[in-house]
Each structure stands twice: as structure tokens, then as C-alpha cells.
Amino acid sequence: QSALTQPASVSGSPGQSITISCTGTSSDVGSYNLVSWYQQHPGKAPKLMIYEVSKRPSGVSNRFSGSKSGNTASLTISGLQAEDEADYYCCSYAGSSTFVFGTGTKVTVL
Amino acid sequence: QVTLRESGPALVKPTQTLTLTCTFSGFSLSTSGMCVSWIRQPPGKALEWLALIDWDDDKYYSTSLKTRLTISKDTSKNQVVLTMTNMDPVDTATYYCARIVGGGWTIDYWGQGTLVTVSS
Q1: CA B47, B51, B54 angle in degrees (round to 5)?
Q2: Which of A21, A89, A107, B84 might form a disulfide with B18, Cβ 3.0–4.6 angstroms?
Q3: For the residues B75-84, what does the mean pLDDT come to?
Q4: Confidence (pLDDT) at B103
Q5: Residues of chain A contacting residue B102, judged by C-beta atoms under 8 Å apart
Q6: Partner residue facing A52 (CB), from B45, B54, B104
Q7: CB within 8 Å: A34 and B106
């Protein structure tokens, strides 16, 4: 159950698109289409942004999208806005009712 | 409306046992497919999955912490309890409980978290 690997930081200007990668193994990301993404603002609980690789919960902006290829999942934020500045975590189901989180990515809006 | 709330001590001493309670509403842990997990986050660090209990009272633990963790449920009270033995300062973290619906295996609702500091 090693943590999924994410870049420590990603930045972009307002209106731009950014992509955050999340690399796991064939035992987690590569085995299941059960990757989710969470946004966390300072001092707050994580908020579900994407589930099952590419599905958006009700109320989440369509500027957020997800994808997966092999052992790597990705979150893309298009039309970057100031309110998107936060930490982002991926999470993958790892079989046998267990989960593994990513190392986290700090998104900065320049 | 699904809500979860964590409660427990804010401060524990090294070697003590931590007991946290998650009280939830808006769903029942006796419903097939429902699960509750515990997740923690040390200050300034990443989230770490700890444990899960499902509707059938099956329990699953992080491999690295398995020997120290016990998760249990009281369905009648809508509560899930996590105990962690032999606490150490590195266990200082915000502890979250969260709901998972089996099958989709998405952690969809989170509590607000409770900060536990381990210090003598």
C-alpha cells in the first residue's frame, strides 16, 4: 500500500488549463476504474470532485475532468479560477476493501 | 442528508490508546453496501487511509498499522469506533471518518475531522 505519486505542485494563470497526474501500480490504479479526486482547502475536509475515474458528482463544475491510462490517472482543471487554489488528492481502490491516497498536489493560481 | 462527525480526545500521551467515535446520520450501516472508513492527515502532510468496516461487520485495515488498529460499529447508535494503541508523536494528525458505498468504492461524504495531538 504505497502512496500514489503526484507532483508536489502545479501552477497556472487564470483561464488556463492544468493537469495533475497520479501514478500508482497494477495493483491499484491499473486494476480498477475506481480512482477519485478530492479538493481540500486549508483547514477543511476533502471534497469529492471526481469519482470512478471521470464522473463528476452533482454540483461540481464541469471544468473538472478525469481520465486514466494504465497505472496513471489524471485530473484536468480547465478555465482555472482563483477558487481552484487548493490541495488535490487522488485516491484509488486497492482491492479487498482497501484504499490508497496520493501524495497530494498544491495548485497555485498565479 | 448524510453527515458524519468525529469525536474524541484532542490530546493523548505517548503509549496511550486513542479512541475515536464517528457519529453519522442520513444512512444506515445495516444497509447492504454501506461502509465507514477512517482516514488521517498529519499537519501539512497527505491523507492516509486507515481502516474500513462494512454493513456485514467485516473489517479491513491499513497493512502498516494493522497491529495497532481496531474498528467496530454500533448500528443502533449510528456510530463507528476506532481505537489505535501505543500512540506516538508521529500519530499527531487530523482524523476523519467518511462514508463509502461498496461497489462504487468512492469515499463520498467526510466528517469535518478532529485533531489529535500526541504529546507528553
Answers
A1: 130
A2: B84
A3: 97
A4: 79
A5: 97
A6: B104
A7: yes
List the grid coordinates of A72.
496513471
Residue type, B82: L
Which amino acid belongs to residue A12? G
C-beta neighbour count of A59 within 10 angstroms: 7
**Which alpha helices (H) appear in A1-110, and where do they start and end?**
none
Dihedral sign, Cα of residue A60, residue A62, residue A64, residue A69:
positive
Q: Which residues of B17-38 are buried (b: 16+ CB within 10 A; e: fewer)?
A: ebebbbbbeebebeeeebbbbb
| Cβ within 8 Å, pair B63-A1 | yes
| A1 — pLDDT class (breaks 50, 70, 90) | confident
B46, B49, B112: residue with CB nearest A45: B112
pLDDT in tens, B84-103: 999 999 999 999 999 998 87
Q: Is the distance from CB of A72 to CB of A22 less than 8 angstroms?
A: yes
In the structure grid, which three cell numbers stand for residue B69, read together? 488498529
Please provide residue A73's backbone torsions phi and psi, each rounded to the nearest 5 degrees: -105, 160
Residue with cell string 468496516: B53
Q: Is B111 exposed, middle or buried (0-12, 13-18, 19+ CB in 10 A)?
A: buried
Residue B104: pLDDT band by 50, 70, 90 thresholds? Answer: confident
